[in-house]
Amino acid sequence: MPSLSITVYCSSSDALDPSFFELAKELGKLIAEREYQLIYGGSAVGMMGVLAQTVKDHGGKIVGVIPEKINSHVPHLENYDDLIVTHTMHERKSIMEEKANSFIALPGGFGTLEEIIEIITLKQLQYHDKPIVILNFNGCFDHLLAHFEYLFSQAFAKPQYRALYAVVETPLQAIEYIENYIPASFDSKWYLTDSGFHEQKE
Q: Is 5-200 CATH 1.10.3720.10?
């Protein structure tokens, strides 16, 4: 059983610049070489497929988690260690959260953004205390991170919550952050107004 299971969120598009697929290969090779297990979205397309196949090509273990509605429409790898087919997207995300003890977001579309926001929110609400890494390759998450800063500046979220996640630029930095992760402690997420009303900011 691998000592570490990493859920990776990333694009399922085959129409990307080749540099994104090279990024997926670099991360996949590191995951396999360090004998970690990959938990991912289950298909053989886009960065997902390249990432998973690279892990397998270098002797690593992969677990795919995919909703049945998508499962019947996408290509599959030939060598999963486990493929879990779920009824819903919600069930898929829950399994990917439960099976992993760390998370990395690579570049991706709406699904990747939704997944990384949810896993950050779950950590904020103390449903887990696992490391989360945003791999900001070529500035792909710059606009999202700028919006996070807006949330902090306008008191929609406390500045301490920058520590919920790490922002890195390379796969090696992502893996090293996970390997050296020390959980942070946070004050209450609630703001107290002058009137004494506790206002939740999510």
A: no
